[in-house]
Write a sequence for this structure.
């Protein structure tokens, strides 16, 4: 959604349906100031580092042990997430 009068572009995903008009009301009513917030370089760096951290693909080193079923044990190869 674009709110040119508030200088806001809002992008969202959701699991449950929410009418756009209701979502637009929530976003626009959250604005409390007529001026932009002061910059926060430390906060921006922290956010960038967290985004980088969760964006890095990781490999599982130790697969979860599988229970034995009727005397036979299955072993599965580790996989990358999102494949």
């Amino acid at each position: 959604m674009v709110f040119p009068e508030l200088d806001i572009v809002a992008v969202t995903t959701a699991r449950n349906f929410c009418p756009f008009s209701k979502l637009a009301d929530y976003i626009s009513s959250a604005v409390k100031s007529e001026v932009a917030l002061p910059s926060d370089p430390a906060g921006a760096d922290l956010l960038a580092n967290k985004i980088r951290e969760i964006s890095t693909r990781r490999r599982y080193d130790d697969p979860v042990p599988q229970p034995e079923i009727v005397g036979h044990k299955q072993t599965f190869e580790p996989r990358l997430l999102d494949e």
